[in-house]
Every structure is written in C-alpha cells, then in structure tokens.
Amino acid sequence: MADFQTIQAGQDRIAVRKDLRVPMRDGVTLAADAYQGTDDRPRPALVALSPYGKELQALALTTPPQRRPSPMWDGCVEAGDIARVVKEGYVHVIGDLRGSGASEGEHIGNYNAGGVPLGQDAYDFIEWVAAQPWCDGSVGMIGISYFGSMQVLAAAERPPSLKAIFVSGGHYDFYETTYHGGVMWFMPRAAREGRGGDSGWAFTDGVKSRMLETYSPEEIRERVAKRLRDPDVAAWPNLVHVLNYPKNHEAWFDIVMNEVDGEWYEERNPVTLAPNIDIPVWLQIDQGRGWTMDGTIELYNSLKGPKKLDIGPYPPMQSRPFVEEHDKMFRWYDYWIKGIDNGIMDEPAVTVFVEGTRENVTGAQWPPKDVEYRSLHLRPRHRLSFEPEPMGAEYAAPDGFYQAPLTVTDKVETLSWSTAPFDEPTELIGQGAAHIFAEIDQPDTNFILRMWDEAPNGRRRLITTAYLKASHRELDEERTTEGDPYHPHTRAVPVEPGRIEEYVLRVYPFAATFLPGHKLVAELSNDEPPADAHNSLLPPDAFHLPVGRPVTHKIYRDAAHRSRLVLPFTKRAAAGNR
C-alpha cells in the first residue's frame, strides 16, 4: 500500500499519490491525486472534482489564502485546504473531470450535457476511491462553486459509498447562474476561459461545444447571425469575437448562444435532480451574491434527507485557496462519516447571519422567522414611504434617466429613493419583489436594482440586488406569490416603446437589520457602475452585459402606478414601524 511520495507541508509531512488513473464504466480514465498521512492506514476520503486542474488545487499547500481585492486571488483554487484535510484524518482526492486536465474523454457543454453525465462519472470515481486499500470505504466530498455543484450531481446518482456532502457556494440552476433576470453575467466566462482573477478550465482537445456538436455549420451560421442582431451582444467586442470564433471559446459560446431557459439548461439542472438525494446534505452560502442564495434555498427545499442550511455574512467572495467553513465541514463529516456524536444534529436546521446586528438567527426553515410583506412606495423627491402616493401622474410626474451606451460614455446613470432614518432596529429576512412601472423608448433595456444600508456617516453596504431584462418581464402566475415573483425566462417579448409597463423584479434573498439612524436606499439603473463599494470586492469580470443602445427611462410612481418594493419584514420589525 506504500506506493506514495512524501512532501513537506508546514510542520507536517504528507503522503501523495500522483496521477492515479480512475476507470469509468465506458473505458475512459480520469486523472487524480490523493493526499493523506504518512502512516499509510486506511482513512475515509473527501473527493473533489472539477475541470480546473488538480495541479492548480495543489497550490493550497504553498499559497496562503488570499481575499479580494488581492491580485493573487484565483477564483479556481476551490478544492479546500489539503493539509487541514489530511490533519483531520481524511484522504483528500482531487480529480480532473472528463475531457479536462490529465483526464481522457470529451467534455461537451456544461456539466457534459452533450456526453456522459458528470454525475455518472462522479459515481464511478467515488466507488473506485472507496475500494482502494488506502480508503476505509467511506466517502464525502469537498470544494466550493463548481466543486459544490459536482457534489449535488454526484449525490443525485446515489453512489453507495457516498455518506454525506457539504456544499459551500455552489451553483445550481445553471440558467440563473448565467443570466440574472435574463441579463447575461460575465463571471462564467472568467471561470471557463481564465480572465479577471480566474485561471479557468484546464482545457484540452477534449473540451467541445455542444452547439457545434449538435448543429450543422449552416445552422450555426444562421443562429450566430440571429444572436448578433441583439444590439447588446453586437456592441460588446468579446461576444462578437466569441460568436465568430467559437472553437476558441467552446463552453462560453454555448452560453452566449442560449439566452433563454429551457431544455438546454434543464437537462443537467442540479435542482431538478435534488429529489433523488437522500444522504445528509449541508448547504452553505454567503450573502452578497443573491442568485446563488436563491438557488441554494431552492435546492434546500427540494432535498428529502437530513439537511442543514447555513447562510453566512457579506462580503460575497471567499478566500482562495478556499479555507472558510472547514470547521463546520469537519464537524459534519465527523458525525456522518466517522460516527462521532458531536451534537450537530441537535442544532437548528437553518442558521442565518443577519447583517447590521451581526447576529445569527436560527429556525426550522427559510426564512427562519415569520415575516410580513410590506410595501415601501417610490415617492416624489426620491423618498421611500410605507404610504402610497395619493396624487396622479399630472402632479407626481415620473422620474427619468437617459443612459447612453457605454461605448460612448463612462457614466452610468442612476435613480435612487431612500427611507427616512429608522428610529429602531428594523429586521428583514427573505426574498422580495420590486414593482416598477416604467416607459422606455426602445424595445428592450435592463432594470438593475440594488438595495443599500446607508449609515448616518454616509457609508453604504450592499444588502441585495434584483435584475430583469425588460423583454423577460413575463411572470409565471401560478408560481408567483406576494413578494416572491417567478419568471420562466423561456422567451423574450420585445417592449412596445412608449407604453407604460409593470416590471416585477425578483429581489434576491437577504437578511439585514437596519439600525437606528440608518436608511434603506434603493438604486435603479440599466447598467452597473464599473467600480463602487461593492464591485471593488468582486473579480473584474463579475459584471453584467451592458445595454447596447441609448434608452430613455421614465419611472412612474403615482396613484395609478404604484411602483414599490415588497419586502419581508420580520413580524416584530413590521409591528414596530407603522
């Protein structure tokens, strides 16, 4: 069993088995490295799987954790603290997915949706690890983001040796990971191609476009020409380049070419597969990236077995190498894998960090407290009020802004409305809705809403966000409830210029207490400021596709057009702020 090398990691020595070949059921082999203690006794294993390259993950042994905005932060070093895993008595097994790194096979499209399901490969990988003499037969998984999504895909296949998973910062509904309210997000480009603080996929000739594998060259040309008729796409140089040279940008090309939801994304949607999961699952997510909070909560509600939901504090980007949450993870695995009765299952199922008070609240479900949805109405003079506007549009004239394309200006125009200072702590926990009555002079635009907690000294902290592409305004009326809108995003319907429409934006889940003297500020634009108190904490590519045409926006908030925020006040807070 001793076939390993030893390396020094701080004060400790670690045994490593490099370039293991892991056979899949179709004959393809995946590459893996395994790290463990030097006494060579069998241990439970924690498996990490991604297309980012196992060698990149090994930097966790030599690189201290970096946080944004450090230029040494690399978003793809996500497999966890190797030395800590070994010290806790586990084997850390890091594998390259099919078609990436040193592994064989083809990786076609996202989650290999055009080839072998990645969950199937994960099943074979886990069972091979469990059968090795250096493993005691029990397996968990480790890693955030893509590694986290792989945990869900693996668990849905029900490999017998997988005893539990601990998922931090995963991405689930893949359409909502890439298009927020129908507005394209650029971060997946960075994760795949290596831009803006990410090394990207460990690409090989085995990584292929599902679109190019599915459609003929003539069909591709027709579809590309149609996509380039979108002025937002046509105005952005990178997208023009991607669409003209798809073989250099296989995975990103597939995303750009599929701007609406449907079968393309649903086939491997981890949330859809979640009801198959019956092993214990811990889901953790930090605030500040609302779409991943939304997906995490949706996944949590779909799970059938023992489960916990842990929502942490802002800011949104964890360190790289990823080391946060390890204490909780080892408690989880010590209980479910090692059989140590540490009382973790006697603790509440849901824990939520509340910004403002910086306290944790607990409960049996999300949200962990009873809430009452109340409306904050947009009023003249940039005010937010619990009372609606009594006057008509002839007296309460609409607010407005004109946004020129970012090709000709660096300035992003914004409208803002704020409450009066709160006179007592006011707590909100849950998701919400923004009902915006607007008139635009083009067939489409973006609505980007950001909510801030503004302190008496003017310092601001982002609380949550909402996005909606105007052409994606359709609601699923059966799934939509007060404060909880649902958009199918299965088609784009152009707007009739000059017509007043009601746009209902989904306000992503959040938890915040506004302290006495603080204000809630709602800020509306159709593009994002290039840099501000929030964006400076994100990688350079973590922004959304700007609108590529000039648009004039009129925002109505009169007695006939009650533009408002519908927000989840906890019942104590709702009673105290009448």
From TrEMBL:
Keywords (alphabetical) are: Hydrolase
One GO molecular function term? hydrolase activity
Describe the location of the Xaa-Pro dipeptidyl-peptidase C-terminal domain by residue ranges. 330-566
Against Gene3D superfamilies, the record matches this protein to: alpha-amino acid ester hydrolase ( Helical cap domain), alpha/beta hydrolase, Galactose-binding domain-like
InterPro entries per record: AB_hydrolase_fold, CocE/Ser_esterase, Galactose-bd-like_sf, Xaa-Pro-like_dom, Xaa-Pro_dipept_C, Xaa-Pro_dipeptidyl-ppase/CocE
Q: Which SUPFAM superfamilies match?
A: alpha/beta-Hydrolases, Galactose-binding domain-like
Recorded superkingdom? Bacteria
Q: Where is the signal peptide?
A: none
Q: Which PANTHER family match?
A: COCE_NOND FAMILY, PUTATIVE (AFU_ORTHOLOGUE AFUA_7G00600)-RELATED (PTHR43056:SF10), PEPTIDASE S9 PROLYL OLIGOPEPTIDASE (PTHR43056)
> Know the name of this protein?
CocE/NonD family hydrolase
Q: Which organism is it from?
A: Streptosporangium amethystogenes subsp. fukuiense
